[in-house]
Fold each of these.
Amino acid sequence: MNASNHTYRPEPLRMTNQRKGILEEVQKARQHLTADEVYELVRKKQPRISLSTVYRNLEKMADAGILARLELSGNQRRYDWNTDMHHHARCVRCGAVRDVPVDAGVELDLGSQAINGFAVSGFRLEFKGICEKCR
Amino acid sequence: MNASNHTYRPEPLRMTNQRKGILEEVQKARQHLTADEVYELVRKKQPRISLSTVYRNLEKMADAGILARLELSGNQRRYDWNTDMHHHARCVRCGAVRDVPVDAGVELDLGSQAINGFAVSGFRLEFKGICEKCR
DNA sequence: AATAATAATAGTAATTATTCCTAAAAGTCA
DNA sequence: TGACTTTTAGGAATAATTACTATTATTATT
Ligand SMILES: [Mn+2]
Ligand SMILES: [Mn+2]
Ligand SMILES: [Zn+2]
Ligand SMILES: [Zn+2]
């Protein structure tokens, strides 16, 4: 029931050189990179790539689920190679972002799916603190 | 123990007309306003106020704890009249932001204060879902 | 293979949110 | 009053992101 009645055109995603280069850097960096950082990395191998291509493709691949948009408060947008559900911790001193596994001292009861009339479909948890380097 | 050793100069905050107008609007709106929205509201009563004054004073008053900075993912910054600890839920359709009381189905164990070498001092929890209007 | 249709690109301009700068105005206080 | 400090308005500057456009590359169709 309630199936969509018009056929999906699956939006072909051509795997261009630029796209491949971008994805590669994001995946091998194993960090949470900004568009600008990705640009600087890809540039080394593809000096003619443009910044807007990087922006566009990070967004496209995030939409496609190939990588994850990392939404942190009040910052430059970052992208995550890790598309699995996990949380993040940010150092208030140096701004470093660390992964936090879902079970690390965190228990979140989403059983009551309706908060204040909201149909809750997900949540985002962001820790703040001070990393070991900054102590 | 561990008290700061230099005396605090308590940073005098003059309660100017502009400041009063800004605070008033934030508090009576009972919404999570952006700087721009505050500007438009205050303008009605103080047509000569400048946008940068609004920005500057929202920041100052947030620093002073008179109002709260509301940090949501990837958005324009918003300010909260409510400085008590609480969470927020955002509607993915219309963007509306609702308050979520700290005890609403949420149990977060911060007993283990060290996550991954991080000295955790706080966290931010943001729900996403669909509000009643958008269903 | 040639042609047509579609998608992606580089480079740049435009937009948006925010912060910075500066000279003038207003508030504080001895 | 006069010195000092804070705040202001208005505009310029910055930073991140998005939009535009002519060109190039890829895929589909004859
Ligand atoms: Mn991550
Ligand atoms: Mn709130
Ligand atoms: Zn740090
Ligand atoms: Zn809604």
Note: Chain A touches chain B through 40 residues (CB under 8 Å).
Amino acid sequence: MSGHLRVLLVEDDIDLATTVLDYLALENMSCDHAANGVAGFNLARANAYDVMLLDINMPRMNGLAMCRKLREEGVDTPVLMLTARDTLDDKVEGFRAGTDDYLVKPFAFAELIVRLQALSRRRSGQARLLTVGPLQMDLDQRQVRREGKALTLTPTGWQLLEKLMRHSPGVVSKSDLEQLLWPDSPPDSNAFKVHLYKLRMAVDKPFASALIHTVPGQGVRCGEAERDGEEAV
Amino acid sequence: MSGHLRVLLVEDDIDLATTVLDYLALENMSCDHAANGVAGFNLARANAYDVMLLDINMPRMNGLAMCRKLREEGVDTPVLMLTARDTLDDKVEGFRAGTDDYLVKPFAFAELIVRLQALSRRRSGQARLLTVGPLQMDLDQRQVRREGKALTLTPTGWQLLEKLMRHSPGVVSKSDLEQLLWPDSPPDSNAFKVHLYKLRMAVDKPFASALIHTVPGQGVRCGEAERDGEEAV
DNA sequence: AAACGGGTTAACGGCCGGTTAACGCTGGCG
DNA sequence: CGCCAGCGTTAACCGGCCGTTAACCCGTTT
């Protein structure tokens, strides 16, 4: 169920880097690698990763600075610092730079893997029962109910709804959803639109209000209707 | 800006528990406490916490089982395990139960605090916000409010405003903004001016004061009105 | 006065998103 | 063995939004 994470490793020690790459490959994770901070920064800005592994001591730009700069630019991919610095101040400094986790060298690869998975799923959720307003998805029994009534979803509809509910009330970009359905190559047709439409038919049509909303130019959101904050001043 | 987190501590060692409570109080975090797994489970299900600290060795229900049960019930609050067990297998087991982080006793309180903040930063459902004066941009729900009222932006307007708010109160050069919209080749028309104008219509027109200011010859700035004494000599 | 930087409009056209219907594959069942 | 149902895919159509463009306007500068 780890589902093919995309990882970015920024590490100047080539031996360590290749070893990590090997281990990640065993876990079915794809991993890009950069040997210095600047190269890593550019990769991180250009591609969308699920999690990043950063060394601190690196040529050209160190891991802390790189993390800080990424955060300033709005990149909020989870970051796991990999470093030999183990004093308390180092750790506090790391977290202040926007790190999510901190692992001291030398470390066990099993722990690296497991922390990495924890980081990546922290965004996608890990509960077995998802609830969004009147919608309830039971992942063990594989059934969805709205206001108590069971809904029948197609397999793809299920995939979409699960991702939407996991991110609720956040917006999920169209490209993310497409990548979910077609990991390698999104089709050139409008298949996606049709799937989404049919999901709407299943989830919203039989009821009074819609739970699936498209945010123009941004993506799709699952949640209660938008309330315009009409607060008096 | 730790902003008053609500924490649940489940720990049967009363001495340790009171010490942790004291430290959290210093950080302006409110913290409930339970001394065994069952009590903790009930608290966790009843209230909404930002993050939970669980001991593993506890009477009635251990931390791992409690975490697992919460996940089954759909509670996805971040969990930080606090335990004396430090073998690799223990850690792997902990993460498998749905833990988000794992801290081995004895630990430094500064590290506890900082990891706890990192976890809550990622709290699912908690909005990532950009705030500039009365302007508030919710990056997850992809909506912008000013004085509570929701604004409707076009996709390009959103791009511009996000960059402006990120750099606020700094000035963003016109060429930077153009490069944001057209990475390869800025158009030869005045499309940029029009986009900026429409953004102003959306952000400033319905309100008394303007938040988007052009600094002649420099670029554009997002922020409260400038006090007069600014002249650089 | 002409040139320049910036602000304000209105109109056009393409693209995005929603909606249908039809086709084809696959797996189950008689 | 053949039929049917379910599901994914595709093409086509439509409406409205939004990006683009070319105007014109203004004040300041040269």
Note: Residues 154-156, 187, 189-191, 194-195, 198, 216-217 of chain A lie near DNA strand D (CB under 10 Å from a C1').
Amino acid sequence: MTGEKGVKILLADDEPNILQFLELGLAGEGYEVCTAENGAEALRKAEEFRPHIVILDIMMPEMNGFDVCRKLKERAENVAVIMLSAKDAVDDRVAGLTLGADDYVVKPFSFEELLARIQARLRNQFPNLLGGVEIGPFRLDERRGEILYRTEALALSPTEYGLLKFLVLNHGIVLSKTKILDSVWGYQFGGEENIVEVYIRSLRDKLGDKEHRLIRTLRGAGYRMDLS
Amino acid sequence: MTGEKGVKILLADDEPNILQFLELGLAGEGYEVCTAENGAEALRKAEEFRPHIVILDIMMPEMNGFDVCRKLKERAENVAVIMLSAKDAVDDRVAGLTLGADDYVVKPFSFEELLARIQARLRNQFPNLLGGVEIGPFRLDERRGEILYRTEALALSPTEYGLLKFLVLNHGIVLSKTKILDSVWGYQFGGEENIVEVYIRSLRDKLGDKEHRLIRTLRGAGYRMDLS
DNA sequence: GTTGGTGCTCAGGATGATTTCAGGTAGAAG
DNA sequence: CTTCTACCTGAAATCATCCTGAGCACCAAC
């Protein structure tokens, strides 16, 4: 599941098999999907569905993918178009047709590849639809593998990353060292609890939390992240 | 067939043989070609044809290639000029004449060489006319099987190509070595993960990414391609 | 055959992460 | 104030990961 809530994709292909396959796959990834079986229908549905991404087969009845693409682009709305071109089509013709699209995928393609292309398009044209959860002054971005603190990315080791993520997700809650060890290091960890103190210190350093106001020590009980 | 639809080339040469030879050749490559038999005609035709590339013989009646080039450049339109110079011309004179041109080819030349020069010009001055998809400073062209980095084509082995394509398409995302192996080498690959490190290194070399800022190492997590 | 390019492995060194430790500090209880 | 204890801290020691240069096997082109 890499798809994001709120991303709308319009699929247009005249082959019902492919259409259904892609629809199920993309919906399963969390995208909001709408389908059309020819170019004219695609245009009509795009009107009210307002998709972020349109995936167009080139060879379609009524209106081919290229014309649909051009019409979509004329509307000057921000929409990304990905073309599906058949491998056996004459090369130069396909080359001409795909001009104007934002990306194209040559059939046959793997579903993974289409997903990657969609992601790439989203990142280029709709960056705000992607990326992370905001919690107080933090932003957890699992996809990028980084945590921002006040818009700045923290340079964290894997353990630091895991610990900070755990603290932020459980902010306002007292977390005993035992609990932290179990959750971040795993219950099979054999070492001393002091390791938690060491890593808490490291985080406080990197967060500039000199007064221990962000990560509070509750003597005898554990630690608590306070996002005021 | 390497030419792209939509690229317009104006040919000017006073020798009908050469003119026809080049016209047929370039048209066969998919370019839109227009011809002129002297300098004045070339200028006139350029006016309405609006070529992307002008190929000028230097020695022509009415107006020589150098003057045509200067006039074309004065129009402040984006146009690439490639000069054709005769072999028997004195070298430094050729050098002087070709000043102002974007490139020149010495007669006799192979058609392949001219094609290569045209491609190079397109890459430099009209990158969007080339096929493929632009992602950050990269341009993926699957049809041609090449990846450009800042307008320059990279010389990549098949595996390097696959890896770079995967990284670029998934830029901004942490990619573990396992994930990379599965996607680029295939899940049935039996070897060591070190192979990923080796190929990452090779890519970093070819990209001039000495500081590892483009392809970032996230210790313990994987790699991430960072554009912008 | 020879050459050159590619894919992969290996071993060492470099770099960074993790853990331990020993001493210092500061709340809490009496 | 004293004492006890939990926590903090800096550095050292250990450990893991990653980088790198070299080398081998394979295949295709010449």
Note: Residues 157-160, 191-192, 194-195, 198-199, 219-220 of chain B lie near DNA strand C (CB under 10 Å from a C1').
